[in-house]
Amino acid sequence: MADAIDRPGATLRELNRLNRQFHGLITAACGNPVLVQFAQRTNISHWIFSGTGAMSPADAVAVNAEHRQMIEALRRHDGDATEALVRAHIGRTLKILEQAAPAL
Questions:
Q1: Which residue, 31, 48, 83, 85, is most buried by CB atoms nearer than 10 A?
Q2: 74 close to 82: Cβ distance less than 8 angstroms
Q3: What is the pLDDT of residue 49?
């Protein structure tokens, strides 16, 4: 999915679908139904904001780089690193949303 997100020419609809799939797989794998439900309810399709200029191309690259870092931490079974990466990823998403607020 991370490779598909980086594919040139991907549509916003495709990017959002891939992003939702990525987050869905990660949260489903945790086996915690409360976390899964929370993730589903708070899903943000932030790539949609790129049409308004609120999410820069640099943000899009950084977001997917974070996805790749999470994948690697999960492969290593490094829970502490995964947690830190997820927290940073949530922080970036909040900043993107804060930037998007005036544009909405």
A1: 85
A2: yes
A3: 47
Specify the length of the chain in residues: 104
Q: Three-state SS for 104? A: coil
By mean pLDDT, which of 8-12, 46-50, 65-69, 97-101 is the weakest? 46-50
Per-domain residue ranges for the chain? 2-103
| 101 close to 46: Cβ distance less than 8 angstroms | no
Q: Which residues contact 54 (CB under 8 A, 6 or more apart)?
A: 96, 99, 100, 103, 104
What the block records as the tokens of 44 is 């943000």
DSSP calls for 2-61? HHHHHSTT--HHHHHHHHHHHHHHHHHHTT-HHHHHHHHHT---GGGGGGGTSS-HHHHH
Distances (CA, A) of 48 to 44, 52, 72, 81: 9, 8, 26, 28
**Nearest to 20, CA basis, from 32, 12, 30:** 12
